[in-house]
From TrEMBL:
A GO molecular-function annotation: DNA-binding transcription factor activity
GO biological process: DNA-templated transcription
Protein name: LysR family transcriptional regulator
Keyword Transcription regulation: yes
InterPro entries: LysR-type_TF_proteobact-type, LysR_HTH_N, LysR_subst-bd, WH-like_DNA-bd_sf, WH_DNA-bd_sf
Family in the record: Belongs to the LysR transcriptional regulatory family.
Highest taxon listed in the record's lineage: Bacteria
Keyword hit for DNA-binding: yes
Keyword entries, A-Z: DNA-binding, Transcription, Transcription regulation
Length: 292
């Protein structure tokens, strides 16, 4: 007898309260259902059900065996579903949230490749520096920067989110190039409004330096700080993803390139058991594009 079919008959018998009902749920005759049940008991070497003409009840071993059968059938069903999903083409709308700087400067340009590869998928991208709730707000996936809390989400690690210190050639020609981290305290340093009092941390061969920086301009937006640096208003420390294109084009000059600057972990997260073809294709793309 087929083992999985016999397990299914056994579980139906327990759930529905009778062999007759189990036979109907399984689409077989009561006689065949009885053969499945007897075959399963013979395989187990003991009775699974105490049966009389009026009632039935699980034996002690049957109770444990019933729970195990439920789990096995659930796993088989999920495996079949996964195999079916694997063969299905990604399609539909994918709702994603990401931090503003990373989303606008790195993720959006990369989406051209993803959308070209999956023409049946639409992306609804929300850029925000707050932590969105995937369940309450209906997001399929999120890009997260920083240490993840124990949220129950499935997380895939990406390359760390690294910082970069830069200034425009014009600023450096007027004010000079800082040779060591401590020199920054004598320069116009551009900072976020909410972190202006925080020192800049730079690690070189001598160890970590915590430099108290100052400047006449503070802004609450990374893109605006980049613009300020491009226009020669001072030295900026921002994510590399925000500044690296300007460095390559010569619009900004990278400072302390051989030293280590702060970095934060980055992940792409999604809800457990949410692995549709469109989501799986997006997660794989993000890990391939931005992975370590």
């Amino acid at each position: 007898m087929d083992l999985l079919a016999a397990m299914q008959v056994f579980v139906h018998t327990v759930d529905k309260g009778s062999l007759q009902a189990a036979a109907e749920a399984s689409g077989i005759s009561p006689t065949m259902a009885g053969k499945h049940l007897r075959s399963l008991e013979a395989r187990a070497g003991t009775r699974l059900l105490n049966r009389t003409t009026r009632r039935q009840s699980l034996t002690g071993f049957g109770q444990d065996y019933y729970l195990r059968c439920q789990e096995i059938l659930r796993m088989v069903g999920e495996s079949d579903m996964q195999a079916q999903n694997q063969q299905a083409a990604p399609t539909g709308t994918l709702r994603v949230t990401a931090p503003v700087s990373f989303g606008s400067e790195a993720l959006v340009p990369a989406l051209a490749t993803y959308l070209s590869a999956y023409p049946l998928v639409r992306i609804d991208l929300s850029l925000s520096d707050r932590t969105a709730d995937l369940v309450d707000e209906g997001f399929d996936a999120a890009l997260r920067i920083g240490t993840l809390p124990d949220s129950g989400l499935v997380a895939r690690a990406l390359a760390p989110y690294r910082m970069m210190i830069c200034a425009s050639p014009d600023y450096l020609s007027r004010h000079g190039t800082p040779a060591k981290p401590e020199d920054l305290s004598h320069h116009e340093c551009l900072s976020f409004s909410w972190s202006a009092a925080s020192p800049w941390r730079i690690t070189d061969d001598e160890g970590e330096h915590r430099v108290a920086i100052d400047g006449r301009l503070r802004v609450n937006h990374g893109g605006a700080l980049r613009q300020a640096a491009l226009h020669g208003l001072g030295i900026v420390m921002q994510p590399a993803v925000l500044l690296q294109h300007d460095v390559r084009a010569g619009r900004l000059v990278q400072l302390f390139a051989d030293d280590t600057l702060p970095s934060r972990p980055m992940h792409v997260v999604h809800l457990p058991n949410h692995r549709s073809p469109k989501l799986r294709s997006f997660i794989d793309f993000v890990v391939t594009t931005f992975g370590a």
